[in-house]
Amino acid sequence: MNRDTIFKKYDTGGKEIFKNLTFMQDEFPDQKPENDEGNTEYKWKLVFEDDKERSTKLRKLSSQMIFRLYEGNGKALYLLGITDDGDALGMNVQDLYLTLVMIDEAATRIDCEIKNVRIYRKERYYIVTIRLYKKECEFTI
Prior knowledge:
alpha/beta; five-stranded mixed beta sheet; 5 strands; 30% helix
């Protein structure tokens, strides 16, 4: 499993999030339900019907990222393919690609760094962990 085989039908060029993917062999377990506070955020997938909905959700995601970074003193962990209840459902390749693009755009919008993008297999689906960093200590919420 590697970037070229998974995303061969998709344009990954120029997007920071696709540059340093690590493919894990481990099974990803279910998690405890998401906590509304703290620096960890669960997202099952970020896929939208139209550009207007996507634009609105991108603004909300960017704001939420700032909150999670604030809660973690400049560090946040995103778990993608995980429901708010902590169920590790995963997502198909197309939803994975669209979700990663959305995370990349939100991170770029708030000028934070994407690190440690790890992709796990769960049967025929994918789960991703992403660590985000923002050097500035002052956040606007």
